[in-house]
């Protein structure tokens, strides 16, 4: 049963691109209810299979060591896999001996740098190895890449990550460095079923080929049913240029869904997307864009080439980060909290991010279903601020909140 359902899913839901993988993993609204149900069923079947394997192992152990027939093995202090690996082979040797990864070995054999890396015992790595079936399916649905180097590099992760550790990771740093990230590691999100320990890391078999993510603009433009209003706002205000700047060293985009704009109300939207309200729209969009700083839910790439990784050992986590937005003088306060497998990101202590870590080649996208408005200073006190609650706004309220945008006079009209 556990083998049958993944095969059916692979045949009917083909991972044609990075975006398909993200949609299925994140469970975003474009997925059909049927696909979501299949994924839930797969998780249940996987848990059942895990229980069945444990029961089988217990029975085998009892057969080999029946009660009263000698001492049972001492499992009270098992040797950790990273200290006592299951094999003394390197990752390259392990992959080469695997009958299900013959095709990926053929491709890797032409990349000496990567082969040397997978053979090296100077550090630990995790290699996400697409099976032959996965690679054949990828080539059926996609043109043959002119170069496999970037794709193969994207399958190698720094550090040894068996399944027990993967569940505590939101993103992983790969061997692929991209200019859009300031020549820092492109990150990866992935869910796997099986792993095999090697002397210099972990081999993870996966059922699809991992393709490096597209640009932020591509992500927004490929989902018009979700981001058409935000993409239009970027275009009208010419702020989409900030996403294409050659000097861009990553960035964090808090992308507004169409539902977020709808919550402002018809009057506010009609004004924002009119020539008269263009300045207000520009201010609004600027507050959702951060350039040269990429904040993932578990790592910060700062503007100076630094990398700050937050603890990911399963312990509760609380991190506060200040991000300078494109709106001059306005910073965004971001709080990240994690308890067990639940990671929450809040803006200005109030707005919860709906979807985290949509990876891009030039940064990261976090999805919001409520518009962010810079906190407004209270008139009665120079120390207090008030937050926008997320409901409908009149044009007058919108101008008051955004402050710098003013209606044109008759002479200007």
Written description of the protein model:
With 413 residues, this protein is an alpha+beta fold. The chain is 34% helix and 22% strand. The protein contains 15 helices and 19 strands. A hairpin with a 6-residue loop joins strand 12 and strand 13 (331-339). The model is unreliable at 1-84, 378-384 and 408-413 (pLDDT under 50).
What is this entry, summarized?
The chain is α+β, with helices and mostly antiparallel strands and 413 residues long. It has 15 helices and 19 strands. Strand 14 and strand 15 form a beta hairpin.
List the helices and strands and how they pair.
Elements: H1 4-12, H2 18-26, H3 33-64, H4 91-96, H5 102-108, H6 112-119, E1 125-130, H7 132-141, H8 149-153, E2 156-158, H9 163-166, E3 172-178, E4 184-188, E5 194-198, E6 201-206, H10 216-221, H11 224-236, E7 251-256, H12 258-264, H13 266-272, H14 278-286, E8 289-291, E9 294-295, E10 299-301, E11 307-309, E12 317-324, E13 331-339, E14 342-347, E15 351-352, E16 355-360, E17 363-368, E18 376-377, E19 385-386, H15 395-402
Parallel strand pairs: 1-6, 7-17
Antiparallel strand pairs: 1-2, 3-4, 5-6, 7-8, 9-10, 10-11, 12-13, 13-14, 14-15, 16-17, 18-19
Unreliable segments of 5+ consecutive residues = 1-84, 378-384, 408-413
Q: Give the structural class.
A: alpha+beta
Report Rg: 25 Å
Order of strands in the sheet with the most strands?
2-1-6-5
pLDDT averaged over residues: 78
Helix content: 25-40%
- Give a short account of the largest sheet: 4 strands, mixed
Shape: elongated
Strand content: 15-25%
Annotation field: number of helices: 15
The total strand number stands at 19
Distance from N terminus to C terminus (CA atoms, Å) equals 70 Å
InterPro entries: Adhesion/Biosynth-related, FAS1_dom_sf, FAS1_domain
Region (Disordered): 56-80
Pfam family, one: Fasciclin
Domain FAS1: 88-210, 214-372
């Amino acid at each position: 049963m556990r083998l049958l359902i993944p095969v059916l899913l692979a045949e009917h839901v083909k991972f044609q691109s990075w975006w398909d993988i993200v949609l299925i993993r994140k469970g975003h609204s474009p997925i059909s209810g049927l696909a979501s149900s299949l994924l839930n069923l797969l998780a249940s079947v996987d848990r059942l299979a895990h229980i069945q394997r444990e029961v089988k192992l217990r029975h085998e152990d009892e057969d080999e060591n029946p009660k009263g027939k000698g001492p049972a093995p001492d499992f009270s202090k098992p040797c950790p896999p990273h200290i006592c690996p299951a094999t003394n082979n390197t990752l390259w040797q392990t992959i080469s001996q695997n009958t299900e990864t013959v095709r990926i070995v053929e491709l890797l054999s032409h990349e000496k740098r990567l082969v040397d890396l997978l053979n090296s015992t100077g550090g630990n790595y995790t290699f996400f190895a697409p099976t032959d079936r996965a690679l054949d399916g990828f080539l059926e649905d996609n043109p043959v890449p002119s170069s496999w180097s970037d794709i193969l590099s994207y399958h190698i992760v720094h550090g040894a990550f068996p399944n027990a550790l993967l569940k505590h990771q939101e993103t992983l740093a790969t061997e692929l460095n991209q200019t859009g990230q300031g020549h820092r590691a492109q990150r990866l999100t992935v869910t796997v079923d099986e792993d095999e320990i090697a002397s210099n890391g972990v081999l993870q078999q996966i059922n699809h080929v991992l393709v490096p993510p597209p640009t932020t603009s591509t992500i927004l433009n490929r989902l018009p049913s979700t981001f058409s209003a935000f993409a239009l706002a970027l275009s009208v205000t010419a702020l989409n240029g900030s996403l294409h700047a050659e000097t861009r060293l990553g960035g964090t985009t808090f992308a507004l869904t169409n539902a977020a704009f709808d919550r402002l109300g018809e009057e506010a939207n009609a004004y924002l997307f009119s020539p008269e309200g263009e300045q207000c729209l520009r201010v609004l969009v600027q507050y959702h864009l951060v350039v040269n700083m990429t904040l993932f839910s578990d790592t910060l790439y700062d503007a100076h080439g630094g990398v700050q990784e937050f603890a990911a050992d399963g312990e509760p986590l609380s991190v506060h980060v200040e991000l300078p937005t494109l709106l001059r003088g306005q910073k965004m306060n971001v709080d990240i909290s994690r308890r067990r497998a639940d990671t929450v990101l809040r803006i200005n202590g109030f707005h919860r991010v709906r979807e985290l870590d949509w990876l891009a080649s030039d940064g990261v996208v976090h999805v919001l279903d409520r518009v962010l408005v810079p906190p407004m200073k209270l008139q009665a006190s120079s120390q207090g601020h008030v937050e926008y609650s997320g409901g409908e706004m009149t044009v007058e309220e919108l101008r008051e909140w955004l402050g710098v945008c003013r209606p044109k006079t008759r002479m200007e009209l």
